[in-house]
Amino acid sequence: MPGFLDRHRAQRLMEAQGLAALVLTQPESIVYATGAFPGVATNWRRAGAAFVVIPADAGTPLAAVVGDLQARSFAAQSGIADTRSHRIWVEAGDAEDASRPKRSPRPAQYRLTDTLELLRDILSERGLLQAAIGLELSFISAADYPAFAAMPAAWQDATRLVERLRSVKAPREIEYLRSAAEYAGAGLKQLLAAIEPGMDAARMTEFWTAAAVAEAAKRGAPAPGSWAYISVAGDGFAPGGPARAGDLVKIDVGCVVSGYSSDGGRTAVLGRPRPEAERIYDALHRAFDTGFAMLTPGTPLADIYRATATSMWEQGFETYNRGHFGHGVGASVWSEEWPFISADSDAVIEPGMVLAFETPWYIDGLGGFIIEDQMLITETGPEVMAPSPRDLIRIG
Fold it and tell me: Which of 24, 156, 206, 355 is deepest in the core (most CB within 10 A)?
């Protein structure tokens, strides 16, 4: 299959949860599993615009339900022979086709009842209609769930199962994330050389974006997407500026390649930092080093959180209670995705994960601090994708 789904890993996870099959309905999950766009109706981000049925048995073919406008291209791109279509609002096709319905208006978007009927047919034909089926319940609204509940399937929440599948990256996903991190890192290096008194966060963002795009062009790659949270002094999150002597500049940026977003950050200061800023940064740096040393396969993320937080507390910052010290990166709707390096995490580091590890702090009146690296977890530990010095960067 052209997607990134590991059928054997999926089988193990489904068997552990007692599932006979998994039904994907979140657009990002469908693209991940199949490598194909599931149709324009999914742009509304409502459950049921498309489905992909993944039987637990890794040798059993997948099935799909997508809008009729793109059903043919979806089947060709995904390789899913059993692709069934439902009517969406777009009128297309052969105007002379006598088999087309007459005086039968299409829906304004799509009909959930139509797509669920097709899903029911697939499950019934495969003997799964009354089986335990995993469903991404975090994506299904309260308004839509009753229609799912009316089916005889024994639905179970498989949100975390899908997150676990997507957390271990395929080689091509890793290359997307590596390229994105390298473009962002090159832009960061050029921005740091260009910052001067009088620049505000908006101008820094423009400069960084142009530099990151230029790096991609230099490598013969298409222009990446980008996002940036750059702040100058202030509260550490609002943009702020113009920059003056002693101001902190927090630079948290990412590029997006083929839907995959990088995430990394550094902190700079114009001239000499205030003693309080220097003390806080040194503590964050020590805490970062403590947690980073633990980013090895088999380590529970909760243990990494505890060690990083304890480092801050033992350095005198007992009110520093950040919710997580990093997260997965990938092709989610944001730059942060499961798993999170948090106090209540139940995840354990696995080879093939790509994580962003960070120790940020935003302090009113002083500014923002961040040390953040994106890394691939290898069999022996973390490999930083766009390495650069982690010291507080002094400008001028």
Answer: 24
